[in-house]
Amino acid sequence: MKLKAQFLKIFLVHSLLSNLAISQDNDWPQWRGLNHDGIANSEQNPPIKFNTKDNIIWASKIQGRGHGSPTIYGNKIFLVTADETAKTQTLLCLSRDTGKTLWTREVHKGGFPDKSNKKASQASCTPATDGNFVYINFLHNGTVFTTAFDFMGNKVWQKKISDYILHQGFSTSPAIYKSLLIVSADNKGGGAICGLNKSDGKIIWKVNRPKKPNYASPIIFNINGKDELVFQGCDLVTSLNPLTGEKLWETSGSTTECVSSIVTDGEHVFTSGGYPKNHVAAIKADGSGEVVWENISRVYVTSMIVKDGFLFAIMDNGNAMCWDSKTGKNMWRERLNRATSASPVLVKDRIYAVDEFGNFSVFSANPKEFKILAKNKIGDQVYATPVICDSKIFIRAAELIDDKRQEILYCIGGKETSK
Q1: What is the domain extent for residue 202?
Q2: 280-338: per-residue pLDDT in tens?
Q3: So what's the pLDDT on residue 114?
Q4: Coil, strand, or helix at residue 222?
Q5: What is the pLDDT of residue 316?
């Protein structure tokens, strides 16, 4: 009987792991998706037309305020939020099917800064998960902490990453790489990029950073046949070995403060920033540091998308842009939305982009022609980047009712899909 029970346990664990591995194409396990590039699985067909009544599968009220995107794995959604009155920072777990809250875990209490950028929140991290644990970053009492929870809501470990001198806010999200969790905390006091052991939070490697404010999240890409952690900001573009922290190459460039995440076409890395200057640049990814092209477009907060030799962006003012990724030639620049903080998401040949006022547009990822496919409205305020998986759109928005702000996580899908 004992052998039979052990065999059954092994079988169930193996089945669970297999199901998790299979489901990854329909999940969104970290900031900007499975491949860190804002590109969703092309074998899906989310709707292009929707509003707060049409094509809504469910809508769940979220207490507090946060700008982090949802992370989705299996039947669970993970989301961070902060209550600015109670001064608590919390991790939520919701049902993917119904939006019902499964559990909440207070991570920190107190220690909120006296003031920060008016667009900042105290919960701007997008969680990351490997299917076993979920990992989050918070700035608490002048210190950046990374915390790991299991899927039942049990805290597994917590690690101090760096002291943090607040300038505008804190927003970086963790990235998963093999056995490691990569986290960053650039700030005016001198921060760090660290590789932590996912299972216990032990710091495996640590790279100290310049004493400059910066808000970019670590991104891992396979470039020229090897994995690289590429990072922008602090007036540098830096490539590290994500397993060891060894510097592969580094060049002056980018700007001091960057919010957006780097993207690549395999030959170039594309950087963008907004202080002390606006810039979008293509830098050779061979370690030479050669700047192939550069312009002064303001793509400070939103991250860009690369598709089939072209670079697409939503500028901070809401304009949509398209460049030839090799030459920097401006293919078109058109008015799309208003002021924008959320990054766009690509599905097939469609780009989904939402502005700070809930204007949610869908346009064609066509370098030859700018074409708006739909104009929608979701909520009154949106700062979080939408997530698209399993032909559904998950978007964190806020409604303003009688001067009271209520955050809502929407699941958008249904019968009406684009043809």
Answers
A1: 68-209
A2: 999 999 989 899 999 999 999 999 999 999 999 999 999 999 999 999 999 999 999 99
A3: 78
A4: strand
A5: 96
In a domain, 173, yes or no: yes
- Return d(Cα 137, Cα 67) in angstroms, integer: 13
Q: Which conformational region is residue 25 in: left (phi greater than 0), alpha (psi within -120 to 50 degrees), or beta?
A: alpha
Q: Which residues contact 188 (CB under 8 A, 6 or more apart)?
A: 165, 167, 211, 212, 213
Asked whether residue 162 is domain-assigned, the answer is yes
Q: How far, in Å, are 70, 345, 388 from residue 385 at the CA level?
A: 9, 8, 10
Q: Cβ distance 398 to 379 under 8 Å?
A: yes
Task: Give the pLDDT confidence score for residue 24 in this predicted structure.
Answer: 66
Residue 346 falls inside a structural domain:
no
Residue 85: burial class (beta carbons within 10 Å; 0-12, 13-18, 19+) = exposed
pLDDT score at 298? 96
Q: For residue 250, what pLDDT is reported?
A: 95
- Within-domain flag for 363: no
Q: Pick from 301, 297, 228: which is nearest to 67 by CA?
A: 301
**How many domains, the chain?**
1
Positive or negative CA dihedral for 198, 102, 64, 346?
A: positive
- Rounded to whole angstroms, the Cα distance separating 230 from 246 reads 12
Do the Cβ atoms of 106 and 153 come closer than 8 Å? no
- CATH code of residue 169: 2.40.128.630
Q: Give the C-alpha distances (Å, rounded to integers) separating 140 from 137, 162, 170, 210, 369.
A: 9, 11, 10, 21, 46
Q: Which residues of the chain have pLDDT under 50?
A: 1-23, 416-419
